[in-house]
Amino acid sequence: MIRYDAIQAAYYREKLKKRVQADVRECYQCGNCSASCPAAFSFDYKPNQLMRMLQVGLVEQVLDSKAIQLCIQCLTCSARCPRNIDVAGIFEDLKTVATAQERPVPEHAKTFNKAFMDAVARFGRLPEVYMMGMFYLGTKDPRLALNDLGLTLPMVKKGKMQFVPRRARGTAEVARIYKKSMHKAKEREKAERAALAARAATSAATGAAAHLGAEGGVAE
Amino acid sequence: MTLAYYPGCSLHKSSIEFDVSTRNLLSVLGVEVVEVPDWTCCGSSPAHMMDHLLAQALAARNLRQAALVGDEMLVPCPSCFQREKNAEVEIHENDALRAEVNEVLDSPYTGRVKVYALPEYLYRFVGEEKIAASVKVDLSELRIVPYYGCLLGRPSELTGEVDNEQPMMMDLLLQAAGVDVKWWNYKTECCGASVGMPKMEIQRRLSGKILQQALAAGAEAIVVCCPLCHVNLDLKQEQINRFLGTDYHVPVLYLPQVLGLALGLSEEQVMLHKNVVDPRPLIAKAVAAAAARRAEEERKAAAKAAKAAAREKAEETVAAEASASGDASVPADAVVPAVAAGPGEATVITEGEEVQP
Question: Looking at this predicted complex, what is its ipTM?
Answer without folding.
Answer: 0.83
